[in-house]
Specification:
- The protein has about 190 residues and is an alpha+beta fold.
- The protein folds into two domains: about 10-100, no CATH class; about 110-190, Glutaredoxin (3-Layer(aba) Sandwich).
- It has seven helices and four strands, in the order H-H-H-H-E-H-H-E-E-E-H.
- The chain has a four-stranded mixed sheet with strand order 2-1-3-4, with helices on one face.
- Helix 1 (about 40-50) runs antiparallel to helix 2.
- FE2/S2 (inorganic) cluster binds next to helix 5.
- FE2/S2 (inorganic) cluster binds near residues 118, 158, 161 and 164.
């Protein structure tokens, strides 16, 4: 049975709470004229920084703010801008970005689908789930559909082994999947 009340396993403080990861068009890979840290973004980050003894402690939620602003991913110039804004070494910021799966260094779809392919899900059909996604979306793993709607990737155990196979769409778990259910879910995504 699908459990839409179960919260996303990864994330923690500052994790995006909205249903769609990249609400805006993804920003380009080269810096646009618009600043990454504009006044509104600086204000939001400033509110975060005030809660902590060091600006470094606000890095993860600040990255979520910047990633959302950049349409769901973190171009290099955005990482550099945030490092500069928080007066951190860019290498430290890259270290966090590359460690957490919730941060993306290339564009992802507005809806991000993660398919668990660990043992329980593998034994109960995760490969078929991946095949259906390929058929329905017409793109390979880690590619974005032409309309920017979706991207999908395989993932490590998401902690719902008893309801395998399962996948996560944005912040929502979908469990006991069948090929038909995967098709229905994909069609529901706008
Ligand atoms: S093996 Fe898929 S959720 Fe654990």
């Amino acid at each position: 049975m699908q459990d839409e009340r179960k919260p996303a396993a990864p994330g923690g403080i500052g994790a995006p709470t909205g249903a769609v990861l990249g609400a805006l068009e993804p920003w380009p890979a080269t810096p646009p004229d618009e600043p990454v840290i504009d006044a509104a973004t600086a204000h939001r980050i400033g509110e975060l920084v005030e809660r902590y003894p060091q600006s470094r402690a606000a890095l993860i939620p600040a990255l979520h703010i910047v990633q959302r602003r950049c349409g769901g991913w973190l171009p290099d110039y955005a990482i550099a801008a945030l490092a500069d804004h928080l007066e951190l070494d860019p290498a430290d910021v890259y270290g966090v970005v590359t460690f957490y799966d919730l941060f993306h260094q290339k564009p992802v779809g507005r809806h991000r689908i993660r398919v668990c392919t660990n043992l329980s899900c593998q034994l109960r059909g995760s490969a078929e789930v991946m095949e259906v996604l390929h058929e329905e979306l017409g793109v390979g793993e880690d590619e974005v559909t032409g309309d920017g709607r979706c991207s999908y990737t395989h993932f490590e155990c998401l902690g719902s082994c008893d309801t395998a196979p399962m996948m996560m769409v944005n912040d929502t778990y979908h469990e006991n999947l069948t090929p038909q259910r995967v098709r229905e879910l994909v069609k529901e995504l706008e």
